[in-house]
Specification:
Blueprint (H helix, E strand, L loop, with lengths): L3 H16 L4 E5 L2 E7 L5 H10 L4 E5 H6 L9 E5 L6 H8 L22 H12 L5 E7 L2 H8 L3 E3 H5 L1 H6 L2 E8 L8 E8 L6 E7 L7 E7 L2 H5 L7 H15 L1 E7 L2 H4 L2 H12 L4 H7 L10 H9 L4 E5 L3 H9 L3 E6 L10 H10 L5
Length: 364
């Protein structure tokens, strides 16, 4: 019988294979796809893939397809014919828009008339889960169990893949807690939460001794390596993190939930690719969608689960993002108040903040 930890472990191991350039099998009932991340394509890997299957094609998100002038009828995932001239280099350029200038796309590309199906969405979700760009080379296969066993490929169920964010969020385990005095907030404790199948931990930063009997002042902060650690001026993340800790300490106590959701959920490498596109003139919204992602790939279920585990059911949420309010409340945490939390722009992030206000609904 399949257990929760077995399901998550299988998905994590499949993601590890994809990051190593090893195909995985995505199965939905009697149907199955062999899936390989397009950004990992090189000539030997592509030959190995083609030696295993026939009739391969490319799958892109609708966002990426639109940027390539391949309209997808509003489908979440679009199948694109793989033309005879398409080399491994062409495939990586198809997946990665930061290569558009150095590797001009040949096109035009032909959409395959294929319905929007769970197995296609799961194939794309698997490479997102592996923190790779959402584009794959795929082929239909028969007798998935025998095929996977013969070639040593992991098999994942489409339904498990599509639910993985919520499954993992509901299976967080507290694994460590320690007092860590911070500048300006010496009475602080860090509590770490690990997904049941492993993976990167989320951290709760508890400042003071907040009471669970009343709404706790708190912030959800998605990790930002460049802003939090390197003090990047491209965003306001570092200021928001330090400012939240300072404000919470001055208010007598509260919580910062530091979530492992780099780049609004796309991962550090993809975020750096988005930055490269911004250098070409795209704003933060268009950079994400040109890469094939949604504007925001995060869910706030982990934050809700952490709060409940710590005994808090009602919060005063420090945010300018209405989606965080809706996200927490959708998972059973009452937001008693939204607390404004913003900082003056600098010459490097003024456009970024304007886009957040004008295009993503931030209250700035």
């Amino acid at each position: 019988m399949k257990t929760l930890d077995h399901t998550l472990l299988r998905l994590e191991r499949a993601a590890d294979d994809l990051r190593r350039g090893i195909p995985v099998v995505v199965k939905d009932g009697a149907r199955a796809l062999l899936v390989f991340p397009a950004e990992m394509a090189n000539t030997p890997a592509l030959k190995n893939f083609d030696d295993l299957v026939s009739g391969s094609f490319v799958m892109l998100t609708n966002n990426r397809a639109l940027s390539l002038k391949v309209a997808g009828k509003g489908w979440a995932v679009v199948r694109v014919a793989r033309p005879a001239w398409m080399t491994a280099e062409d495939m990586t350029a198809l997946a990665d828009p930061t290569l558009d200038l150095s590797t001009p796309l040949k096109g035009p590309y032909k959409r395959l008339e294929h319905p929007d199906e769970a197995i296609d969405k799961a194939a794309i979700k698997m490479v997102k889960w592996a923190h790779l760009l959402p584009a794959v080379i795929a082929a239909e296969i028969e007798d998935a169990a025998a095929f996977a066993e013969q070639h040593g490929f992991y098999t994942v169920e489409a339904d498990d893949v599509l639910k993985v964010d919520y499954t993992q969020a509901s299976a967080l385990t507290q694994v460590a807690s320690a007092r860590v005095p911070l500048e300006g907030a010496e009475n602080t404790r860090l509590v770490s939460f690990r997904p049941i199948a492993g993976g990167i931990e989320h951290i709760a930063i508890l400042v003071g001794e907040p009471s669970p009997s009343e709404p706790v002042l708190m912030r959800i902060h998605s990790e930002c390596f460049t802003g939090d650690l390197l003090a990047s001026l491209k965003c306001d993340c570092g200021e928001q993190l330090k400012g939240a800790i300072k404000a919470i300490a001055e208010a007598g106590g509260g919580i910062v939930l530091y979530l492992a959701q780099e780049g609004r959920g796309i991962g550090l490498i993809s975020k750096l690719k988005a930055y490269a596109l911004q250098d070409q003139g795209y704003d933060t919204v268009d950079a994400n969608t040109r890469l094939g992602f949604d504007v925001d790939e995060r869910i706030f279920a982990p934050a809700a689960e952490m709060l409940k585990a710590l005994g808090f059911e009602s919060v005063r949420l420090m945010t300018n993002n209405p989606n965080k309010v809706e996200g927490l409340e959708s998972y059973g945490v009452k937001v008693a108040e939204r607390v404004e939390h913003k900082f003056p722009p600098n010459p490097h992030n003024v456009r970024y903040l304007a886009v957040k206000k004008d295009r993503t609904g931030h209250l700035l």
